Amino acid sequence: MDQDGALGEVRASGLRGRGGAAFPAGVKWGFLAGNPDPNKYILCNCEEGDPGAFNDRGIMESDPATVIEGITIAGYACRANRGYIFIRHGHSQPIDRTRAIIEQAYELGLLGQNILGTDFSFDMEVALTGDSYVSGEETALMEAIEGKRSMPRFRPPFPAQVGLFGKPSNINNVKTLAYVPEIIARGGEWFAGIGINGSSGTAILCLTGAITYPGMVEVPLGMTLRQVLFDMAGGVPNGKQMKLLQTGGPLGGVLSASDTNLDLVLDFDVFRNAGAILGSGGIIIADEDTCAVDLTRNLIAFCQYESCGKCFPCRMGMSHLLEILERISNLQGTEEDLTLMRSIGENMQAGSLCGHGQLGFNPVSSALRYFGDEFEAHIREKRHTGYCPEQVFSPRLTRR
Ligand SMILES: Cc1cc2nc3c(=O)[nH]c(=O)nc-3n(C[C@H](O)[C@H](O)[C@H](O)COP(=O)(O)O)c2cc1C
Ligand code: SF4
Fold first, then answer.
1. Nearest CA residue ID for atom 6, ligand 1
2. Which of 66, 120, 210, 211 is deepest in the core (most CB within 10 A)?
């Protein structure tokens, strides 16, 4: 298959990025393929800092060869000459296994100069993150590979024009690239035939929290949440009721486990419309004992701790949100606090440099949408609505 043919199959597959934004991979590859620069990079994002997500790591531990093949195909289709796999510092098993497979691929002539006797040459190496959530953001990741402090860059220019080391670059999530070898082998149409509407292929989900069978599952997009959480994962243990779901990582959303939401189908657009995102596939399940306000406080504590501090709407906005949520959790919130949070959230969304600040209000807005009555109970009736620990757990106390 020639390079345009490979790109055409990925386009035809309808494959959308699994790193969070669900952007069509074929379209993104097309930006890079069209750039005539002789030095271009393919980056694979295995930073995976979302609490509750471990599918990228699972893939890199169990089948790094498939991902390496996917990156090499991306390099071929985009006429790039070097790939980087960016893995979270400290995830030693994926790091060691990936490095070992890259070495074997060089020995077998599957990487390096003139791969399989063709005129296509492609090199690959592993680069490590600095144990920071924001280093998973695509431009912060490039800064980290370049050996700098990993903070997001201003855009434009976009990575397809000016990326790693100032060269045109394409970045995809591990899962996105892991689908590629099979798409090329079976054809884009085969992949497009799995799934629903504009969401083709499968969802690789990580189920954690109050669930009978936690772990990683791969299911066709289009299944309902109810089928996954009850039929496959056995529902909530110990006879408790399912209360809420936290999906798509800390920048995702908080969904109530209502009948309507449990009937939602796994589809990028359906989830976004419900106020959550499918994101990287993490679903944290909470039972009736969980307090929606406390959970929201916890999510914002994570986001505040991880804000890189480069721009003030996020740096200050996250701190203000956390202060207010701690106040509400301690039953000291006021009526104005809800309006104040919305105003801070709007400013963060409009003024932040990267997705961390732009999406950082999502946990609060979605929690208010589904559990507004619990916020009001804390503020008006000075009443807890679940387990609100006196000891306030936050990443400041629990990490490092
Ligand atoms: C704060 C922040 C953290 C992110 N962390 C990750 C991550 O750990 N893994 C990932 O694939 N994408 C992450 N992303 C999204 C990336 O910026 C980028 O969109 C993604 O790697 C593109 O891959 P895809 O097109 O295959 O989805 C993050 C974005 C933000 C704003
Ligand atoms: S939005 Fe937050 S994480 Fe992103 S650059 Fe600004 S301060 Fe850093």
1. 136
2. 211
Please write the tens of the pLDDT for every residue from 269-315.
999 998 888 988 999 999 999 999 999 999 999 999 999 999 999 99
Q: By 3-state DSSP, what share of the chain in percent is helix, strand and coil, each rounded to 5?
A: 45, 15, 35
DSSP letters, 181-238, are: HHHHHH-HHHHHTSEETTEESEEEEEEEES-SS-EEEEEETT-BHHIIIIIIT---ST
**Could you give the CA distance from residue 139 to residue 158 in angstroms, rounded to a whole number?**
9
CA distance 88 to 44: 12
The answer to whether the CB of 151 falls within 8 A of the CB of 314 is: no
Task: List C-alpha distances in Å: 245 to 24, 289, 394.
Answer: 26, 13, 19
The DSSP letter of residue 154 is: P
Strand partners, 161: none
- Distance in Å, CA 374 to ligand 1 centroid: 32
41-56 confidence digits (pLDDT tens): 999 999 998 889 999 9
Tokens of 388: 């609100």
Omega of the bond leading into 168 within 30 degrees of 0 (cis): no
CB 290 within 8 A of CB 31: no
| C-alpha separations of 277 from 283, 303, 320 in Å | 10, 16, 24
In this prediction, residue 392 carries a pLDDT of 60
Q: Express as a percent the part of the chain with pLDDT over 90.
A: 89
Ligand 1 site-directed mutation target among 45, 46, 311, most atoms within 8 Å of CB: 45
- Domains observed in the chain: 3-193 (3.40.50.11540), 196-287 (3.10.20.600), 292-379 (1.20.1440.230)
**Rounded to the nearest 5°, which phi and psi values hold at 163?**
-120, -125
Question: Who lines ligand 2 at CB under 6 A?
Answer: 134, 151-152, 307-311, 314-315, 352-354, 356-357
Q: How far is the CA of 28 from the centre of ligand 1 (A)?
A: 14
Ligand 2 site-directed mutation target among 47, 155, 311, most atoms within 8 Å of CB: 311
Look at ligand 2, atom 4, and give the residue with the nearest C-alpha: 354
Distance, CA 312 to ligand 2 centroid (Å)? 8
Q: How far, in Å, CA of 67 to CA of 152, rounded?
A: 25
Alpha carbon nearest to ligand 1 atom 18, residue: 138
